[in-house]
Amino acid sequence: MSELFCSILESFWSALGGAASDMESVHVTGAGELPSAFPVTDFACAAVAAAAVGLRELLYARSGSQPRIEVDRRLASFWFAVSIRPSGWSLPGPWDPMAGDYATRDGWIRLHTNAPRHRAAAERVLGRRGDRAAVARAVAGWAKSELENAVVAAGGCAAEMRSAAEWLEHPQGRAVMTEPLVHSTGTTDSADRILQQWNPERPLAGVRVLDLTRVLAGPVATRFLAGYGADVLRIDPPDWDEPGVVPEVTLGKRCARLNLKASVDRECFMALLREADVLVHGYRPTALVALGFDEETLRKIAPGLIDVSLDAYGWQGPWCDRRGFDSLVQMSSGIAATGMAWRGADRPTPLPVQALDHSTGYLMAAAACRGLAQRQLTRCGHRSRLSLARTAKALTDWSRYYHIASSITPEREDDLQPVIEETTWGPARRLKPPVTIAGTPLGWTRPATALGTAAAGWTV
Prior knowledge:
By secondary structure, this protein is α/β, with parallel strands linked by helices. It has helices at 3-15, 40-63, 73-79, 116-126, 132-140, 144-153, 164-169, 171-177, 217-227, 246-249, 263-274, 285-290, 295-301, 326-332, 335-343, 355-378, 388-397, and strands at residues 26-29, 69-72, 84-86, 100-104, 107-112, 157-160, 183-190, 208-212, 231-236, 254-257, 278-281, 306-311, 380-387, 421-423, 426-430, 435-437. Helix 2 (40-63) runs parallel beside helix 16. The longest helix has 24 residues, at 40-63. The two termini are 40 Å apart.
């Protein structure tokens, strides 16, 4: 078993507030690494294992059992890319045609335009362009910092490529360095209900998870929770879609739509929240408050709530309220620049998978499970906050201990589950789960479905 995997896992679990003794009977199998300047495979395996250890803590709180955990290096690496394999249909492309890396007059910048409103913001700055070549010509006349600031000021998403050293000197980089990987605190409000039913094969059965997250970390977290039996209800605004990833991340969930700015839908949301055990959300720090749901209000509506939240650039500093995504944080934090130098490339080189999103998602799932375990013992709620930028720091901190031993062997037929998943878009197969907890299988009873296909209500 990789010493680096063990060290990263121990650091994750410590950040979550766990004890080193909880690491017993955790094993990783297989060999190989995803090609990168960073230990992406060990990081992936450790994040998946942390979520499983969190789930096992709940098992221990309810039954006293601590079964063996086993993580597969190859499958964990594959799940950090795409887990679904369509049959007779194709996944939509993950990127808007305008999105991507562009050369400015003094370096590189990335535009993130997948959401229509973010593309519109970029076009307000650069003008409407007929193709990528026209966008590239427009970008080439800008200085990278000026263009980043202009797009962000217009309500869009962009990130200039900074080196790791530049990020360490940046005010937001310095702010992120002072944050813990997981902000985790218990609360004193007491839950109205504690689950009484217990099925060790589906330990989260009866747990109600209200999912207010979108691309990509939050949906990974709630997909994991659904895989152990949680009733996950995803709520999206009426006009939101993310076709490139929905078949990947709605596995096991029901998906409804509510407009939280409309009074009727707000009342429905509050009724859902009142009966929820876990709230997972990815709103910027001020966005949920602007909707009228600050932390105190959430606690009043749902005493004992397990509240897990995500931000892109951290919870303090000048960018704490900035919109961001995995690919942008990689550009800002020096990851893309380090990859470019490592490969000897002539353009930004991101991680081979969106490891910041996926790793943070599994850590969010671990935080939710730890919160549930603590609530089982104390009846009190729990709050956890994570960010992509802080996860990026954790990944880059481990790069000095890393070297590639061998490549991951390609996917085989026996890496796929034999069962056919009848998704909204057609039949598909999934990769086998990346983690095994003895006696507690990871599996999903609902296929992936399109957004807005379910009623906004609980089934249990």
